[in-house]
Write the structure tokens for this entry.
Amino acid sequence: MTNFFFDVHDGISVRDDIGRQLPDIEAARREAIQIAAKYAKDPENLGAGGLLVVSVRNTGDAVVLTIRLVCQIEVAG
């Protein structure tokens, strides 16, 4: 098991200092997608630019995975 840390950036950065024990990078990818989906459910969590980023770090503090969700709304007229 490896400890992965999930930082969230949506105009404000929230650093994960606790992390989660997961078996591999694929499990970390699934966890990051779930975190991004949970945040994106609430429109207030999307920053002014409509960008939500989840960065996954390993125990060496290196970013091993990044997920970006973009929500752009254009009103016609």
